[in-house]
Target: 1,4-dihydroxy-2-naphthoate octaprenyltransferase
Amino acid sequence: MATPAPSAFIELLKPITWFAPMWAFACGVVSSGATPSGQWPVIAAGVILAGPLVCATSQAANDWFDRHVDAINEPNRPIPSGRIPGRWGLYIAAAWTVLSLGVAAVLGPWVLGAALFGLVLAWIYSAPPIRLKRNGWWGNAACGLCYEGLPWFTGAAVMAAAMPDRRVVVIALLYAVGAHGIMTLNDFKSIEGDRALGLRSIPVQMGAGNAALFACLVMALPQTLVVSLLLIWERTGYAAGIAVLLAGQLALMAYFLKAPRERAAWYNGTGTTLYVLGMLVAAFALRPIVQGGL
Model:
């Protein structure tokens, strides 16, 4: 039986996609208020869980269940090209699921619970009969939660060895909601293909102009709430920092909205960078709040 080449195996797991959950996990670690001294092996295991394990599992599962579509649209991908032969794509996704759960179990029950929830979302996002990705509202919500909210929760849970502080959870959820808009930006590159294949992405449902405006609002409003909460919690300097980053995003949004289809990828690389920097600012803002139990 043919086996995958190592290069095809790595390509299937898409390392470039790991950054977002690994960054969110790091934000969770920072926001926990815990001192990382002596915890570096646990933190490293958590980073691996967030990116090379759980996120990679979702990529392998998605490519397996999209193999027939990819054979038409992207035939050079590892599975349709035959570089991942037979049912190896499914076997890899299943094996990575088990490995992810094993690592999560070692890190504690809260981490295991978060990982299990994320892996369930990863599979039902792509797998029939549910296949959340068929509708942009549900699919993007699942992605936003898995890429930003759950890893942040996991990072905080790893450090606390317990349920994270409620304010940490609220901020993580707000950034997960905002990530729904980031996922919408990703859908601009495949409007025609999604429409032809019956995938109801947000741009397909709303049209490019309305979808672009919707994505911008969904990214901006949660950040506005984060700024407001930090002001309530008397973290004024950090709130001002996030407000400045948001102002930068708004300026970029104005340019993006003039030609959304042509500039979606550009804004995804510029505005999203400011978005994730704001996540780290918010994480540092939470540290003394959690430490002081305020």
